[in-house]
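Running this now, will post back.
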Amino acid sequence: MKTDVVIIGGGPAGASAALFLEREGVSSIIVEQQSFPRYHVGESMTGEAGKVIRELGLEAEMMARGYPVKKGVKVYGPKGHSSWWVPVTSRNEAWGLYDSTTWQVRRSDFDEMLLNHAVAKGATLLPGKATRPLLNDDGSIRGVEVRLAGGSYQTIETEVILDCSGQATFLANAGVTGPKYLGNYDKQIAIFSQVKGAIRDNGGSRLEDKDNTLIFYQKKFHWAWFIPLDDDVVSVGVVSPSAYFQEKGESTKEFLMRELHELNDELTRRLPTIDLVEEVHVIPNYSYQVKGFCGKGYICIGDAHRFIDPIFSFGLTVAMREAQLAAPEIKAYLDGANRDADNPFAEHQLRCEQGADVLEDMIDLFWEQPLAFALFVHQRYTEEMTDAFAGRIFEHQPSKAIMAFRKMLKREGERLYEDEDLYSVPIGSRYHPERAPLWQANSEIQTTESWLGPR
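Update: finished.
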């Protein structure tokens, strides 16, 4: 079997990549080991994620499926007595700012819809698990081996592998990329489910719309989310330091039920009873960064190379935008551009790193200096902050707000990119060089079992 591009993973990153590649006239095979629909967390879209959906021509489909329309995010303080609001916004061609909307999505339905759309547009879906990349003598990609659903093996010859495997980080674990660095936020845990009967806003204004995202702050690194999925069901979850969870000695369900009633007074008010309609799920909330995630015939997209604290729901945005940005670069490579370069996708890698750095600095200031952060949102850098919250991290950045953040975080002048591979040195709170590379430090790899103990 032979194709231009093999995409590892059929989630939003992989499906979006296939769709944007199709627009460039590039054929692709999507290798996906799971059967869709399948449960997945990460249901809230930013403004830029909504823009990508519209550019893919799927707005009418989103509305027909009845996905809740999101107009903004409200963040409540520790006791729920105060809050601040960030609207969903967009920019026009002249970079003028205007109010916009995006969506909340039930990922089991949304991911299947997007994957089916990619297949309908020409991508080939191959059910199976990518087992190992196949390399030429110079280290460039020549193909991938796949274990098919029936147990047999299939070799696919390809010019490019797009790693859209998410936190499975296929190419990093195979040693194709540079090392994978663990960080400070990996000492957190996320426990989540879905509930019926929660009390929502319904005041008629954008700020009080019933389908907005709500975030409930308890203290540093300890918070909860509230994301409407339809007229009756809300996704809820709690993120806390893993040590706190372990100290409680509770099951995941016991922990979630108690936290939803104790974490924040406003959250307690909105959940007078907790009627779970989904299993309780748990993810050890790693943060990490992969060095050298682009190279001869490969690009890692989204979580396949970097994962940052998910508090402001940037995962879908980064995955789909990086897929969008990669498509013309891959087309140029297939047409002969930069074939002799050590890293044919160096400029793309740099652009993605710089964009992720914007998010890292924004999130770190939120945790380290929340009062200053709120001041910047509401008074000093309102437009620049709405850009960041919307996920506009690849254009007109770093803004004055981000530069101010770096100064307050004492990172001014320190955010450097190494000449040899244009890689962003992760100098923020998540950088632990003594713990890299991840796959060579087995004692540091924490599974769900090791976080939770026997269940």
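The longest strand covers residues 124-135. More later if anyone needs it.
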